[in-house]
Amino acid sequence: KAKKAEGSSVTKARTTPKKRATSEQPPGRPTPRPPAAAEPTRPREPLPPKPDQSGPDTVSPTGQPTGAPRAAVAQGGAYLTTAQGTRLPDSDHSLKAGARGPVLLQDHHLREKITHFDHERIPERVVHARGAAAHGVFQGYGTATKITKAAFLAKGVETPVFVRFSTVLGSRGSADTVRDTRGFATKFYTAEGTFDLVGNNIPVFFIQDAIKFPDIIHAAKPHPGREIPQAQSAHDTFWDFVSLHTEATHHTLWNMSDRALPRSFRMMEGFGVHTFRLVDAKGATTLAKFHWKPKLGVHSLVWEEAQITNGMDPDFHRRDLADAIEAGAFPQWELGIQTFPDTPDQTFEGIDLLDPTKIVPEELAPVQPIGLMTLNANPVDYFAETEQVAFHPGHLVPGIDVTDDPLLAGRLFSYLDTQISRLGGPNFAQIPINRPHAPVNDMLRDGMHQTAVHTGTAPYRPNSLDGGCPFLAGADTAAFIEAPVELPVAQKVREAPASFADHFSQPRLFWLSMTPVEREHIVAAYTFELSKCYEQVVKERVLTVLANIDPQLCEEVATGLGLSVPAPTEPLTRPDPSPALSQLGRTWPVDGRVIGIVTHPVADLRSVRSVRDAVFKAGMVPLVIAPTGGVLGRGKNPVTVQRTFAAARSIEFDALLLAGTPETAADAHGARDAKAGVAESGPDPRILLLVSEAYRHGKAIGGWGDASLTLEAAGIGAEESGIVLGGTAGAVLKQITKSLAGHRAWDRFPATL
Ligand code: HDE
C-alpha cells in the first residue's frame, strides 16, 4: 500500500515537508512513519471535470488558468445527454401516448429536466442578497510584516482574491443604486489558508452587540404584511427602530450621506469595521482596523440620479464593474491599516476600539498602505461563483486574529450557520469558488453534498493506525493561536461597557466634517425618508435624535417636514472635524468615466470623431448619442452611434459633450430644422431632458459651435461652473476632463432647474 501511495502524484504533491514533520512532533512521542506512507487520507483535491461537462473546473474557481481551455459555450460536449451521461434523441417533446394523448410518467428525461429546474434556486442571502463579484490579485507591499506574520502581506507575494460587492436590504433582483450600505467582502486564497475580510463601505455599524442583528434587519426589511418597500430604509419600521435604538445614529447618518449612493463599486472605500488583532512572528500583538482605498477616489451619485437609475438601469453597478474589467480598466484598491497599541483597555485617544459604532479619525491614526488589490477577471458563471461564494469573518490566517468586539463575536457564529442553510449542508468549502488554495486535510467527513472521495481508515486524532498523522502545526505556522490577552475576572452579565453609551459624539464629528453641499444632501435625505413615514411619533423621535447631533441639521429637516424643532436631550460635544471623512475637495483620475457625445447627422462629424478618439486616449469611455442608431457620415471615418435619443438617459454619463454644426452644413441642409439636435422649434425634448438632468446633477457639460443653443434652450448659463462652451472640441474636452477630476461641479448645488 505504501509503495502505491509513493507512486501516486497526488500523494507526492501533498507530502508534508520534512521540517514540519520533525519540528512539530510533540515531545515524547515516537517518531512517526514517513509522511508519504502515513498520510491517513488523501487531502481534498478538486474532482476531475465530468467527461463532456467542462464547467467551472476548466476556468478555476478563482479565475486562475487551470490549463484547460476557457469554456466559450454552455455545451461541454457534442451530444446532449442526461445527467447520467446517456445520449438523448429528443429534448423538445415529452413522451406521450399518441401525439394528442397523455404525457407518460415513465419519461425519465422529462422528470430529470423539470426536477433539476425546480431546484435551480437556492435560498438567497438573508442580507446582502444582491451582489456582483470579480476575481483579482492582491500584492503585499511588505509594510505590515513588522507587525503581522501573515505571509500574504509579505513584499511581492501575490494572492488570488475574489471580491463580492452587495447591497444589504434588497432581495436578489432588487436595483443596484438604492440608498443602502454596500458590502465589500474579499476572499484571499492565501498559501496559509483562506482569509476573508468581510467588510462594508461604511466604517461603523448600527448595533454594538450581535444579539440586536435580527432586530435591525427586521426593522429595515420590508413590512411583513405587504412586503413593501423593497430595498429601502424610507419607511416607518426602520426609523422607529433607529430612533429608539440610538447607537444606530452614527451608521444611519452615514446612510443619509452620499456614501450610501456610490457612483460605482470601483469608487467605494471598504472598511473591516471591527478592530482586529495582528500578531507578529514573535507573538507580539498590535490592534488594527482595515481600510480599502480605491485608486479612482470615493464618488457618489446624487439622489435623483440614483432614483432614475433604479428604473433605467437597475443593474447599473453590476454592469459598470463587469464592463470596466472586460475593457481592461481593472479597478484597484490599496489595503491599509490603522494601528493601535494593544493596551489592556483597548482604547485609542479615548475611543473604545471594541465599539463598532466608532471610527478612529484618520488624522489621529493615519491609514498605512500594506498592499494593492487589482480586480482583473469577471466571473463566468454567476451562480457557481458569485452566488455560491461563502464568506466568514472567522476565516483567518496566522498573524490575523479577532478581538472581543461583541458584534464580531456574533458574526463568528452567524456566517457558518447561514452557509449551512443557504448552501445546503456543511460541505460548502468544497464548492469550487470556496476551495482553499492551501492543502486541506480537515478530517471532516460525510454530510450533504460531500464531493470528496476520502480514503484511509483513521480520520481522527490521536491514532496509531495512520502513524499518528496528521501532525499539528507549531506556533510558527499555525492560525488560531490565542494571543495571551488577560480577561477581566467578572461575573456573567448582560450589559455593555459604559463607553458604549456615547451615541452622539461621533455622528456629530461626521456632520461637522462635511462640506456645505454634503450637509445639504444629508438634510435632503432625512427629509425624503421621513416624509415617507406615516407615524408622526416616529418622525418626532427622529428629530430628537437629530437635535443631539446638530441644531442646524435638526432645524432644516424639521422645516422640511413641517414639524417643530425639539431641544437636544444630550450636551453637544465639540469634536475636531476629520477632513478625511469628506468626499470633496480633491481631484482623482478620470479613468473609465463615461462621456456622452450628443450629435446628429449634420453635425461636425470630424470633430465628433476626433473628440471621441481623444476621450478614448484619456482612458475614458466615449458613447455617441444620435437621433437614430447606425452609422453617421460616410468616408474613411464614419461615427458609430452607441445610444439613440430614445435610449440615452443622463444617468449613464459622467459628462456630456454637445457637437456643433458647421455653418456650411447648416446652410447646405437649408435650415436649422435639418439638424435633429437643435431645430427651429427648439431642441429635441429628449436631449433637453438629458442636458437639464446632467445640469441638475452637477455634471460637466461642454459644447462647441451652435451647441450653445441647446444649453440656452435648457436655461443653462454659459458662465456657470462645469459648463464649457466654444473653442475647439479638443479644448472643450480638456476643460471637461479637468472638471471631471473633481467628480462634479459642486457649486451648482442646490440645483435650481
Ligand atoms: Fe454580515 N451577514 N452580519 N455584516 N455581512 C451576512 O452571511 C451578520 C455585519 C457583511 O457577499 C450573512 O453569507 C450578523 C457587519 C457582508 O456574501 C449573515 C451581523 C459587517 C456580507 C450575516 C452582521 C457585515 C454579509 C448573510 C451582526 C461589516 C455579504 C449571508 C452581528 C463589517 C457577504 C451570508 C457576501 C453577510 C450576519 C454584521 C458585512 C447572515 C449576525 C458589521 C459584506 O451570516
From TrEMBL:
EC number assigned by the record: 1.11.1.6
Biased composition of type Polar residues is found at 55-65
Q: Where is the Catalase core domain?
A: 81-469
Alphabetical UniProt keywords: Heme, Hydrogen peroxide, Iron, Metal-binding, Oxidoreductase, Peroxidase
Q: Which GO terms describe its molecular function?
A: catalase activity
The leader peptide range reads: none
* Listed PANTHER family: CATALASE, CATALASE-B
How is this protein named in the record? Catalase
Please tell me the species this chain comes from. Answer: Streptomyces zaomyceticus
